[in-house]
Amino acid sequence: MIKRRSPSNIQFYRKIVQYLFLATVVLIGIKFTLFVAQLEKGVTPTISRPPGIEAFLPISSLISLKYWLVGGVFNWVHPSGLIIFSMALATGLLLKRGFCSWICPFGLLTEYLNRLHKLIFRKNLKLPEMRGGVSGKRHAVHVGLKTKGHP
Given Cys at both, which of 1, 39, 59, 139 links 130, Cβ 3.0 to 4.6 Å? Predict the structure, then answer.
């Protein structure tokens, strides 16, 4: 018999995963900062560039993905960016909001900003319904897309 975990247990594990990924991102940032500082001083770096920094270069990852899908060749120059992007994409497709909810440090930041908002304002802001029953948020996105690039 499979034992089901209660929602509070799952939230506990989710928080642990979120904080572990946050710690990983902070450590990658610190290591990269030290690496760049050594380069700026003109010293041969004693610290190698962390490969995880490529996760912050999504354009490079998209180009590598296209190169791999169209040309059939895996780009070995920046492999970790493509692997991290592919895993994030797969997580998002398979688990809906799994990436933002469990892995992405910005998901954790958003949760704390939401708590701060509720503490200050006590309620959520509701955008009014627009024409045809379209929510204000969707209408704003639609208008923003239509006017993109226009003054």
Answer: 139
